[in-house]
C-alpha cells in the first residue's frame, strides 16, 4: 500500500470519527467509545479490502461485514455513509423516531447492514453461517466481523469460535477490538480476559496481533488472512477506546454517553484539524 | 381400508420430509446440535452430507449460524429438542431469525411430556409460548406424520421464521395425502353443535376419543385440529364460539401461553364464551412412561370429555 493510500484511509477514518461524533451528539445518546476504537479498521475494510457495491447492496458475490458488537452502530452507519450506502445527512437521524438508523443495526432497515445485532455474542455465529453459505455456493465472498473484548465474555463467542475452525472457514476474518474496557470498568476488573491471542490459537485459529489504529498493519493482516488456507483468522487489534477524541480516550464513561454541545464542538474541531 | 396404518412419531416424519425436501430444493440445509439420531435429521445427513451441519452441543451458535445461512439465501432447518431450541437459544432466535425476519426454520422435536422417562428437564411445556410471542414467528404443531410432512414443505415455501414442534412418541395416523395442510388454517375433523374441542399435536387423537365419549352421553362435539398456533385461525375460533357456544382447548403444553391462551385471546376480544383449557397446569413434568404422564397430568380423552361438560355447564352463567 502506498503512502498516499495510507494517508487517504487515515483521512477516511477521521471522517468516520466525525460522523460518529456528530450522529451521537445529535442523538444525545449512543456509544461513542467503542465506535471510535474501530474507525481505522472500518476505513480499511470498506475502502481497501471489501468487494462491495453501494449501488447494488445485495450483489450475491459481495463480501459481508458483521458488526457483532452492535452498539458500535454509529461506526457502521458513518462508514456506510462514507461508502455511499446511505446519505451523510441521514447520520443525524440516529436513534430518532422513524429513522432507519436504529440504536443498534437492523438489517431490515439499512442497506449494507448484513445482520441485525445488539445482543452481544451473536455476530460471529451469523458470520460463520454466511461463510459456510459462500463455500456451499462456491462464491468468492469473504466475511469480516468485529467483536468486542467485553463481548468475548459471552459463551456463544466460543461456541462460534469452534465452529469457524471445525468448518475450516478461511473466508472468515475477525477483529477482536482489544480496548480493555467494557461498561462497568476495565475488562481486568470486571472479569479478566487473559491472553486472547493464546486462547484463539488454542482453539485452532490463525492469530495475528496488531495495533488496531495502524492502517498499514490492518491491511497487512487482511492480506495475511487471505493467504491463510484452511483456518479462520483472528486479529487481536490493540485499540484505544474513544480513539481520536482526546477527552474520550481510555475513559470508561464514554462507553455509552453522548457529548454535550460544547464537547461535541471540541471533538469536531479537533477531528477537522486533523483533516486539514 | 385394510390394516390400520402404522403409528409414527411426528419427529420421524420430520426427518423423512427433510430428505424429500432436500431432493427438490438444493437451498435446503439442515443443522443439528448432537441430537440428529433423536431429531431424525440423520437421514438428511446421510443423503446430503455437504448440506448437513453438525454444530455440536451449541444451540445458541446453531441458531446464529442458521441466521447467517438464511441471510445468504439458504433455507436452514435448525433442529434440536424443543426445550433447547426455544429455551436455550431464545435470544438468538429472537434477535436474528425474528428481528431479522430471516428464513430460519426451527425443527423442534420432543415437545411436551410424552418425552417420558427423561423427565422435566427435557419436557418442553413452554416452547409454544416462547415462540408465539416473537413478532413474525409462525408456530406449527402438526398432529400426525402426513401433516408433519406437509408442514415442513409449507414452512420451506413460507418467507420468514417458522417453528415446527414435533413429538417423540408414535401417534395414530389421522390424515392421508388428500389432506391439504395450510399455514393458519384449522381443519374440522368432526362436526358438532354443543361444544368445540380445539387441539393440536398429539392431543388431536385424544380429542377425537373425547368426542366419542361425549357422543355416547348425547353431547355433540366439534373437533378442530389447530395445527398452526400462530397465526391462529381466527375465523374458525369465532365460528366455534358462535355455533357451539363453548370451547375446550387441548395441548401438551402449559395452559399458560400456548394454544389455550391463543384461543382465549380470540374469544375474549371477539366472542366471549366459556373456555376450558386442558394442558399442563403450571407445573413441571416428571419421569414416567408417556401413558402414565398423560394420565397423571389430565391429558386423556376422559379428561377432555369432562372439561367439555364443564364448559357446556358454564354456558349462560
Ligand atoms: C447480551 C448483551 N448483554 C449486555 C449488553 C449491554 N452491553 C452493551 S455494550 C456492553 C459492553 C461491551 O463491551 P465491549 O465488547 O468491550 O465493547 P466496546 O468496549 O468495544 O464498546 C454491554 C454489557 C448487550 N448489548 N448484550
Ligand atoms: Mg471493550
Describe this structure in words.
The complex is a heterodimer of chains A (276) and B (317). Chain A is an alpha/beta fold. Chain A is 42% helix and 11% strand. Chain A has one domain (3-275): Thiamin diphosphate (ThDP)-binding fold, Pyr/PP domains (Rossmann fold, 3-Layer(aba) Sandwich), CATH 3.40.50.970. Chain A has a five-stranded parallel beta sheet with strand order 1-2-3-5-4, sandwiched between helices. In chain A, strand 2, helix 6 and strand 3 form a beta-alpha-beta unit. The longest helix of chain A has 25 residues, at 3-27. Chain B has helices at residues 10-24, 36-39, 42-47, 59-71, 82-88, 90-98, 127-132, 145-157, 203-216, 234-244, 259-270, 290-296, 301-313, and strands at residues 28-32, 52-54, 75-81, 105-109, 138-140, 162-165, 187-190, 195-199, 221-225, 228-230, 247-254, 275-280. In chain B, helix 11 (259-270) links the parallel strand 11 (247-254) and strand 12 (275-280). In chain B, the strands form two sheets. Chain B has a seven-stranded mixed beta sheet with strand order 2-1-3-4-6-5-10, sandwiched between helices. In chain B, strands 7-9-8-11-12 form a five-stranded mixed beta sheet, sandwiched between helices. Chain B is globular and about 60 Å long. The termini of chain B are far apart. Helices cover 41% and strands 18% of the residues of chain B. Chain B has 13 helices and twelve strands. In chain B, helix 4 (59-71) runs parallel beside helix 6 (90-98), helix 9 (203-216) packs across helix 13 (301-313) and helix 10 (234-244) packs across helix 11. The chains are: A alpha/beta (276), B alpha/beta (317). Chain A binds chain B through residues 60, 64, 106-108, 114-119, 121-134, 136-137, 155-156, 159-160, 162-163, 166-167, and chain B through 29, 50-51, 53, 55-56, 58, 60-74, 76, 91-92, 95-96, 99-101. Residues 34, 148-150, 179, 181-182 of chain A line the site of magnesium ion. Thiamine diphosphate (TPP) binds at residues 33-34, 37, 69, 71, 118-121, 148-151, 177, 179, 181-183, 241, 255 of chain A.
Amino acid at each position: 500500500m502506498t503512502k498516499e493510500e495510507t494517508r487517504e484511509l487515515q483521512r477516511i477514518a477521521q471522517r468516520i470519527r466525525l460522523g460518529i461524533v456528530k450522529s451521537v451528539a445529535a442523538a444525545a445518546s449512543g456509544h461513542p467509545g467503542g465506535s471510535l476504537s474501530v474507525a481505522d479498521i472500518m476505513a480499511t475494510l470498506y475502502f481497501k479490502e471489501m468487494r462491495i457495491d453501494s449501488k447494488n447492496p445485495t450483489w450475491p458475490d459481495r463480501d459481508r461485514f458483521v458488526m457483532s458488537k452492535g452498539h458500535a452502530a454509529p461506526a457502521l452507519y458513518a462508514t456506510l455513509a462514507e461508502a455511499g450506502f446511505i446519505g451523510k445527512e441521514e447520520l443525524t437521524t440516529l436513534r430518532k423516531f422513524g429513522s432507519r438508523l436504529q440504536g443498534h443495526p437492523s438489517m431490515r432497515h439499512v442497506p449494507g447492514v448484513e445482520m441485525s445485532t445488539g445482543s452481544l455474542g451473536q455476530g460471529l455465529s451469523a458470520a460463520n453461517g454466511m461463510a459456510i453459505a459462500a463455500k456451499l455456493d462456491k462464491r468468492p465472498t469473504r466475511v469480516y466481523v468485529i467483536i468486542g473484548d467485553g463481548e468475548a465474555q459471552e459463551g456463544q463467542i466460543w461456541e462460534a469460535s469452534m465452529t469457524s475452525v471445525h468448518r475450516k472457514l478461511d473466508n472468515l476474518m475477525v477483529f477482536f477490538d482489544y480496548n480493555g474496557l467494557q461498561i462497568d470498568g476495565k475488562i481486568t476488573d470486571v472479569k479478566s480476559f487473559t491472553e486472547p491471542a493464546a486462547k484463539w490459537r488454542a482453539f485452532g485459529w490463525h492469530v495475528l496481533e496488531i495495533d488496531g489504529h495502524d492502517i498499514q498493519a490492518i491491511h497487512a493482516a487482511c492480506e495475511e488472512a487471505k493467504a491463510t488456507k484452511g483456518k479462520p483468522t483472528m486479529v487481536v487489534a490493540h485499540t484505544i477506546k474513544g480513539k481520536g477524541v482526546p477527552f474520550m480516550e481510555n475513559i470508561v464513561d464514554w462507553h455509552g454517553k453522548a457529548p454535550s454541545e460544547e464537547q461535541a464542538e471540541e471533538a469536531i474541531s479537533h477531528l477537522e484539524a486533523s483533516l486539514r | 381400508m385394510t390394516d390400520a396404518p402404522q403409528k409414527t412419531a411426528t419427529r420421524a416424519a420430520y426427518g423423512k420430509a427433510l430428505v424429500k425436501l432436500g431432493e427438490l430444493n438444493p437451498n435446503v440445509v439442515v443443522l443439528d446440535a448432537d441430537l440428529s439420531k433423536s431429531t431424525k435429521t440423520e437421514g438428511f445427513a446421510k443423503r446430503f452430507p455437504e448440506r448437513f451441519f453438525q454444530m455440536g452441543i451449541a444451540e445458541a451458535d446453531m441458531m446464529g449460524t442458521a441466521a447467517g445461512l438464511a441471510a445468504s439465501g439458504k433455507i436452514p432447518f435448525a433442529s434440536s429438542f424443543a426445550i433447547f431450541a426455544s429455551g436455550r437459544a431464545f435470544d438468538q432466535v429472537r434477535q436474528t431469525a425474528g428481528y431479522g425476519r430471516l428464513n430460519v426454520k426451527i425443527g423442534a422435536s420432543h415437545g411436551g411430556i410424552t418425552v417420558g422417562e427423561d423427565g422435566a428437564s427435557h419436557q418442553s411445556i413452554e416452547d409454544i409460548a416462547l415462540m408465539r410471542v416473537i413478532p413474525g414467528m409462525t408456530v406449527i404443531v402438526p398432529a400426525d406424520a402426513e401433516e408433519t410432512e406437509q408442514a415442513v414443505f409449507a414452512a420451506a415455501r413460507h418467507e420468514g421464521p417458522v417453528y415446527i414442534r414435533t413429538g417423540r412418541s408414535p401417534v395414530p395416523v389421522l390424515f392421508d395425502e388428500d389432506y391439504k395442510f395450510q399455514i393458519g388454517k384449522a381443519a374440522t375433523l368432526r362436526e358438532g353443535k354443543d361444544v368445540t374441542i380445539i387441539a393440536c399435536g398429539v392431543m388431536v387423537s385424544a380429542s377425537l376419543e373425547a368426542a366419542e365419549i361425549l357422543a355416547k352421553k348425547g353431547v355433540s362435539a366439534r373437533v378442530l385440529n389447530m395445527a398452526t398456533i400462530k397465526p391462529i385461525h381466527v375465523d374458525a375460533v369465532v365460528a366455534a364460539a358462535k355455533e357451539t357456544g363453548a370451547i375446550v382447548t387441548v395441548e401438551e403444553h402449559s395452559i399458560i401461553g400456548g394454544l389455550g391462551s391463543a384461543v382465549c385471546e380470540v374469544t375474549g376480544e371477539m366472542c366471549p364464551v366459556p373456555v376450558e383449557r386442558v394442558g399442563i397446569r403450571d407445573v413441571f413434568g416428571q419421569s414416567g412412561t408417556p401413558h402414565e404422564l398423560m394420565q397423571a397430568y389430565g391429558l386423556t380423552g376422559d379428561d377432555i370429555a369432562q372439561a367439555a361438560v364443564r364448559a357446556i355447564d358454564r354456558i349462560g352463567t
